[in-house]
Amino acid sequence: MKLVVAIVKPAMTNAVMDALSAIGVSGMTVTEVKGHGRQKGQTEIYRGAEYQVTLVPKVRFDIAVADDIADKVVETIGKAAKTGKIGDGKIFVLDLEQAVRIRTGERDAEAVAT
Questions:
Q1: pLDDT digits over 77-97, tens only?
Q2: Does domain 2-112 have CATH number 3.90.930.50?
């Protein structure tokens, strides 16, 4: 199993969720986060004063999937979240040692199946 972690622009949240749903992935955790990378923040204007925001709002997706669909999930997220501009985000794929569905006790691939 794999844990796919994607950090994307907040405006791309619905597009990513719709694209994942289209390939049959419905189980995910979505979190509002802030981050700092090559984008180096952004300039904001508040009450006429300009200031630098170093932590930019992003959305994090955590998706546990079977090994055989991990590449498809990564490709799907990449296509849905891409604008071609700086700050589009990153996708990480981690090995997932174990998963347990609390309600039924199912383990591993059965626990993450949608």
A1: 999 999 998 889 999 999 999
A2: no
